[in-house]
Amino acid sequence: MADKPAPKPGHFLPGGAGGDDSSDGGSTPGSAPLSAPTPRLGARTPAGPPQLSGSRLESRRSVQLSGTRFGPPPPEDAAAAAYREVYHPDPIPFVPKKQSKALIAGIVVLALVLIGGGVALGAKLLSSYDDFVSTPLVTPSFHPSGVPTPTPETEPTPDAKVQRENPFYSTGPLATVKCAEPAYRPTSKENVRSYYQALIACMDAAWKPLVTQAGFTFRSPRLIVFDDGQETACGVQKEVSSYCADEQGGSVTMPWQNLTETYSQHKATTRADMAQSLGFAYGAHLQNLTGIFDATTNLRDTEPTEPARLEMDRRQALQANCFSAAFFGAAKASFPLRGELLTQWTWLIRHGGDENSKDKVRDHGSAKSLALWMNQGFASTDPGTCNTFVAASAKVG
Question: Rounded distance, CA 34 to CA 364, Å?
């Protein structure tokens, strides 16, 4: 396949100034309608390179979005019982023991002995009580000496403010990232793991200054490279990458078997798919670190209708894609997307919208919306341009 020219500076996908917006109705790379990243496995088009590992999110709410999965498995998942056993075990029931008659009799005798002394003690305490009643604004302290009195927590920030006015949006653009594409090729599980470890290290170095600048604690996501059908804390994994906002601080779970099978025939497509899928999952990790993830989950749970909940899902997924594109925009000098790699990257993005998925669920964003937000993130490298939660509904369709 011939190399395609790289996009003009500041333009990540076709559709920006200088991009190729033409379409002849075909499905070959470079000719499909404007679309977006995060292709789903199995959402194949009649022609063109195969869609690979994709990206799916599953949240704590146990609702699957159509790209990456956030959180614990749904109740019907085969891994649900294992997850509950680790993170939510059933409480141990309290069974009161029967007291012997001899013990009860002893307690009654002891109580009678203490009553006399208790009456005298009560008389002494009455004078102190009278003093307290005469000055009711004086609050007695019942804390042991030397133990500080706990202070009440500060007023919690409303979820809508965390989601829409997060300080992470005000940190400014990413610094230039010096990160070459990892040289490990997906010919084995060990190589796939090494590739993702190297790329996560680059993303950590790029994003940590902005996360800490915004006032949040940074932590790298845990990487799990799973076998197809493997049971993890995020559920039974099936060929798609996932992000799980779990008690481990966030886990990126990535497949490997499908990559080794397709690499021999579609090298550039497989390389582009690996980078794009991890970038999207890492974008979800940034949402988790900054509180946007939990805030969105809470707000989604209060939406009155399914269309409203799906729109919230799309806003969340589009933002994760935008964060991903911001990283690759900051790394464009050292991790260049050009030639055949750019051609295949663009093809994957153009076939990643909801309209191209197998289930057609409108939970991730249309091809046009995904391309819009990825172009925006790539050109600016600024997380502030990825605030999908204040955008008009038409831009998150």
Answer: 16
